[in-house]
Amino acid sequence: MEFLKPQAAKTNPGSEDHYALTRRHMVEEIVAMSRETGAYKPRPISAKVLSVMAKVPRHRFIQEGSVYSAYYNRPLPIGHGQTISQPYIVALMTELLALDKQDTVLEVGTGSGYQSAVLAEMAGKVYSVEIIEPLAVRAAKLLGDLGYANIQVKLGDGSKGWPEYAPFDGIIVTAAADHMPQPLVDQLKPGGRMVIPVGGWSYIQELILITKDQDGMIHQENVLPVSFVPLTGGY
Ligand code: SAM
C-alpha cells in the first residue's frame, strides 16, 4: 500500500489506532496538495479545517469492501454509481465556505454523509439533500449513530434548495451542474458563500466560489478544475 508510512505497518489494520494514524497521513497529503497549485491561486487549508479532517472517521462512511483505502487521498465508490469525494476536495470546499459555529449550511448531495459530518463540525446547523433514497437513508442513520445532532438529511431534489430553512450562510453542491441553479443563488444570504462544480458532465468541470455581497450582488471566482458526478434533478 503505497500511501502508508512505515509506522502504519506497526498498527493493526482495522484498529482505531491504525485508522487514526492513516487519517493523519491523509491530512499531510491534503497539506502537500494545497501547496501544489500550479497556475491556480494558492488556497491554504486552515488549521481548523485540518483538525476536523483529522477527526471525522472517513472509514465509517466507506463501503465495507474498500475500507482499507478509506484514508487514501482519492474518491471512492459508495454504491448507486456515486462516490465519496477526494479528501483534499472536501477540505478545500469546506475551507472556501469560511464557516463559523453560528452558520447554517445547505449541502446538495449527501452521498455517504462524510462531507455533512465535516460541515457539522464547523457550522451550527447542516441541511443536506440527497436524491437517491438508499443513500439518504443510510447517511441519515449513520450520522445519527455517530451523534451528529445538528444535521438534517432530506430525500429530494437539492437543486431546488431547501426553501423552508433558507437563506443560508453557506451552500455546497457536491455534484456537477451544467449551469448555475438559480434557486440556490436565491437562497444564499447576503454575505454568504457557495461552492459548486459547474461545466457540464464531461468529467472536467470548474469549481466555482460564489459570494453574495451585502447589496445582493453576486461575485464569481474560478478555483480549480475538478471532476464530479452529475447534478441531476430539475433545476
Ligand atoms: N458529499 C458526498 C459525500 O461526502 O459522500 C459526496 C456526494 S457524491 C460526489 C454526489 C451526490 O449528489 C450523489 O450522492 C448524488 O446522488 C447526489 N445528487 C445528484 N444530484 C442531486 C440532486 N439534484 N439533489 C440531491 N442530490 C443529488
Structure description:
- The protein is of the alpha/beta class.
- It has a single domain (6-226), classed as Rossmann fold (3-Layer(aba) Sandwich), CATH 3.40.50.150.
- Helix content is 28%, strand content 24%.
- The protein contains six helices and nine strands; from the N terminus they run ααββαβαβαββαβββ.
- It has helices at 16-35, 47-53, 87-97, 114-122, 133-145, 182-186; strands at 76-79, 82-84, 104-108, 125-130, 151-155, 168-173, 188-198, 205-212, 218-226.
- Strands 5-4-3-6-7-8-9 form a seven-stranded mixed sheet.
- α1 (16-35) crosses α3.
- It starts with 15 loop residues before the first helix and ends in a 9-residue tail after the last strand.
- Bound molecules: S-adenosylmethionine.
- S-adenosylmethionine binds next to β2, α4 and β4.
